[in-house]
Specification:
By secondary structure, the protein is an all-alpha fold. It has 15 helices and no strands. Helix 12 packs antiparallel against helix 13. The longest helix has 15 residues. It is elongated. The relative contact order is 0.06.
Length: about 280
């Protein structure tokens, strides 16, 4: 009731809720930002890396691999991984490099030789030494040739041991050390390298590489070279020595002997001397 007019008080209209306040409180634009959920990205990166390695494993030409490696860090890192190697491992790298070498693509061959050498493959180390010695696929560098041959020899590579002896004998990439050369030739011959045994025969017959003339020692090494597969040159020299003849005189009678000798070395089991 109204106290002044004694008439009933009009009904009070119910107040609507203050939507403006609730709206302000619930306005996403004004509400504090919730902390963004954290996602572990490493599984994704790992998956991407695995995919990149799988792609690389089907690429054999270094040009294609270099182009792909330049795309992103993931591909660049994948290219360095063992999982990216064609054939599934280091064992195929020497063969793959050889295929490029046979096609006169020496830089591409060295790409694969280096991959194998950096992973401890003695065959690839030996081939890196030969590449630097001849300047094939890389600039000629006798010191680097010597260093790669030394690494391969330390791992028991017989061909590298023979070639390393030649570096010491002639002072190629290292100071001359004839005693070390003889030591390495003996080691290589003992490991079954025919060219080392043959060269020892020559050294003892001609008083080369710091050793005194010793016909019996020369004959021993020529016979050893025959046993290892050098049945031409070494056998003929051994036969002449046993008959009391001078093999050097026989060499003078054969105008083609010097050429045939150098060519023959390359056909021997485990290769020949490349000097």
């Amino acid at each position: 009731w109204c106290s002044r007019c004694e008439s009933p008080r009009p009904a009070t209209r119910a107040r609507a809720p203050d939507d403006s306040r609730s709206t302000l409180k619930e306005d996403p634009a004004r509400a504090p930002l919730a902390a963004a959920p954290r996602f572990d990205m490493s599984p994704t990166l790992e998956a991407d890396g695995n995919v990149a390695c799988a792609i690389f494993s089907h690429l054999e030409h270094p040009r294609d691999r270099d182009a792909l490696a330049s795309v992103s860090t993931v591909f660049r890192d994948a290219e360095k991984s063992d999982a990216s190697l064609p054939g599934g491992g280091v064992s195929e790298l020497e063969k793959l490099g050889g295929e490029f070498y046979d096609e006169d693509e020496c830089e591409e061959a060295v790409y694969w030789y280096r991959k194998g050498a950096d992973r401890g493959d003695a065959d690839c180390m030996h081939l890196m030494g030969l590449s630097y010695h001849h300047g094939e696929g890389v600039d000629k560098d006798m010191r680097k040739a010597f260093e790669w041959l030394e690494k391969a020899s330390e791992l028991g590579h017989v061909g590298a041991t023979h070639d390393l002896a030649g570096h010491y004998e002639l002072g190629v990439g290292v100071d001359v050390d004839e005693a070390k050369a003889i030591e390495l030739y003996v080691k290589a011959a003992g490991m079954g390298h025919p060219a080392s045994a043959r060269h020892l025969g020559d050294c003892y017959y001609h008083e080369e590489c710091g050793v005194a003339e010793d016909i019996n020692e020369a004959l021993k090494w020529y016979r050893r070279a025959c046993e290892l597969g050098d049945s031409g040159y070494s056998e003929s020299r051994a036969d002449l020595i046993e008959e009391g003849l001078d093999p050097s005189e026989s060499d003078d009678d054969d105008d083609d002997d010097e050429q045939s000798e150098s060519e023959h070395l390359a056909t021997l089991p485990q290769g020949g001397h490349y000097f």
